[in-house]
Amino acid sequence: MQTGKRRGAALAALVIASLLSSPARLPAEPLAGSVPAAAAEPAEETLRAQQLKTRQELEAVARSMKLSDEKVKSLQDNINALQQTSATLRSKVIESAGRRREIEARIAAGERRLAELEVRQTTIRGSLHERRALLAEVLAALQRMGRNPPPALLVTPEDALASVRSAILLGAVVPGMRRQTDQLMADLADLARVRADIETEKSTLNGDMANRLEEERRMDLLIARNEALSQENAATIEEERRKAEALAARARSMDELIASLEKDIASAREAAEAARLAEEKRKSMTEAERQKARETALANPDQNRIAPAIPFGDLKGQLVLPVNGETLRRFGDDDGTGHGAKGITVATAPGALVTAPADAHVVFAGQFRSYGQMIILNTGDGYHLVLTGMDAIKTAQGKFVFAGEPLAVMGEKRVASAAALALETDRPTLYIEFRKDGKPVDSQPWWTAKLSGKANNDT
In this structure, are residues 381 and 312 in contact, taking their beta carbons and an 8 Å threshold? Predict the structure, then answer.
């Protein structure tokens, strides 16, 4: 009896060793417990939930980061070495803003990839858990065979029938077990690859977040230095800001605010007049002259210009969204009150940078009723661009800004406002409205990318 048990145990060990040492052969059809092909693409709901978790983890990491004193000193020394002119510093600010936008786009893309990898890892682990139970059953059967081994045909010919039955049983069980083992090995290898990819993605994201922190500090130092060169206008700017705040407190609507600004605020009035004169000048030019002027402006824009380099009406299909993110609501969509939205709403990452989509005069920068922090840009040709939902404004009323110049940064959470009703997100949201001669218009024709759910992340 003991000899039979030893022979059965040896048989079980031989089968297992054979299975584990055999070259991997994947089954022709999916096996119970294996990872189905469809599972490779996680459901959008699952992915969104994982993205939220990933985003929260990355935000915690970002909050723990800080620049060393040596790095701050290095940034300061680099800025001190620059030519201290407004044109040079402004150019460097725009370059810094562009780099920051690129880094933010990489972080957003990496965040989604990391979430997809985490979902994939969870799927594989679930599959392996199911496979473990199945293999435990087969191993238990082999152990039982070891305790009650099949008869040896050559030793006892009278047990030939039992031997044949045992052979049939093993012939049925062993190939199935081999297929399961092959699939298990493939999934284990896939899990190892996914884990390695997760670690690589996390390392890349940590590097990008450190670079973003450095770029934020560089940009703030550049802005501060540039503002220091313009202190002679500080008193005038402060006086206009106080007047604008008083007008905003009295205005009952955005139309009324814009009209009162361009009537009572000198810088806004001058911006409107400059835009009108530029438009009249363009109308007096031939089409060939206008085309030549556009080409010159694109090739070598005047760094000291105080009017848009290119007419706003000619920029259709060329503007980049002022912030990286996901478009939640488009022009004409239900705004949560049963009316059509007058602008678009983009969900962003916390602390995302908001830049000017085009050359423009800042005719208002401050708090306005339920809109919260608001910036109004006069881009000429009778157009105004309205931006709301920001946390901190980095520009000043009366200033002329270039395309790509930083205007504001987003906060940590969505700002409750009239422009962000009925949005199922707590992420920061930027509301963007185009107005032509005082009436909201669809901004879609101006953007470089179609607003099909994802905002353009390119800068």
Answer: yes
